[in-house]
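Q: Convert this sequence to structure tokens.
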Amino acid sequence: MTRSKFILLLALALLGACKEKERVLPDIEPDPEKPTPRYATGLTFHSSLMGIPVAYDIMVPDRYAFDTDKSYPVVYCFHGYGDNNTSWNKASMNIQSKVEALERQGLIPPMIFVFPMGYKTYFCDRWNGEYSYMTMFVTEFVPMIDRTYRTIADKDHRTVIGYSMGAFGALATTMQHPEVFSSCGAMSISMRTDEQYKTESQGAFDNQWGSVFGGVGSTGSARLTEYYESICPLHQFTAENLDKYSGARYFITCGDDENSLLYGNDELHAKMVEAGYDHEYRVGNGGHDEAYWRAALDEILPWFAFLMDGGTDWEHKTRTVEVPDDCEFQIDGSFLSQGYINNGKTEGTGIYLFYKGLEKSLVNEAIAILQRGNPMKKYLILPCEVTAKSVADWIGEWDASYTITSRQAIAVGEAGTALIRNQTPFSYLYFENAFIEGDIQPNLSAKYYIGQSDNSQSAKGIHALYVACKDAGASFEYRCRDHVKDAREDFLMGFEFIKGNLKGL
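A:
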């Protein structure tokens, strides 16, 4: 056979592979008495590029074998370091039951889920070209899935999600190949800040990072190889690269009980906000475990379904705003609980609400939310406009009016810095979308609540507060929630989250 004839035959073969009617589909005979299992494991695909068989599992829609005229979106699921293609469906994760529950609720359509074996590659090409996993994945594996199964073979109906190492791979793959994926979900990204990366123990760095991204045996800044910086999201999501990467959609989530990974995840969010990247970001209660990732799928998978359906501005409320309309205020603007009044106003917790430039009606609605449902607790809620008086002056003024036996403080928006500079009088401090500047020295005898919506421009200061609390060993809870489009509702939603974390009330 001549070389030109061989090339012609190859081109015709590839053209034919693109036609869905000529796909080599699995030989499945539907049997109503014995439904085809949704989840298949132990499958393999031989990679010509890498010269090895690549294992994978797959989960198809419940009626895949019967509705042979239907094609489906695809979700590629990347596992964590040391896990494998079967890990997504082990008992503690059990993605099949999660998907089935979301389908029953009508939150997601039927989709194909693919679980490739990623080894310990971070789902990336190795720095020296010897083990080109990402290239294999996008040029061989994804096309194989499209040829073999009834997929909707375009980027708008294809997403990649991952946890830990797989989250790094999901982000990197979507960034590097926007022609293949238009969205990704990254849960608890295994990603170090530069300082963490430079100071990682030698053995851990060489085995987990250096072997993939280069720099084995190196220390300090030498570990930040050119190849690593070309792949790492912390180095790539810059203002200069906004046009390059903003075509895809990103969903990032991490638990506030992580030992170390929230440093990098939160820094990435702050950088993306500052550079103008449209993305979703969540921080919830949890650690580096399947329980957190399984719960995160409750929003990530419907978010993908929303995008596939042409949606642009995702809004997923985890709770509703409930403002009582019977909240009675004192002439001075304070609120006194019935329990405090019944006790002769001789003992109570003062909750100081620090704000700047807000309408009084909005402040009153926030106070109404805070007092809801606790009439017999002994407390006062005290509004404090920081442009009128300092934190210390407000404490003195309210002390002159009421007997206050313990103090808590809430700072919103531009009042954040004022409270950071005057933390000592308070046992609990709550920050919501707070702008914070300057040095932060947490009070180790106090407890902190750190909250923000994911599009807040206060992300940089909130990140600095989280890092300061974490480094100092202060007690804290951190939450980042979905933003609400309406500015008033978004502001009050923050108080719903504070309400759920108020101590002693």
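Confidence is low (pLDDT under 50) at residues 1-30.
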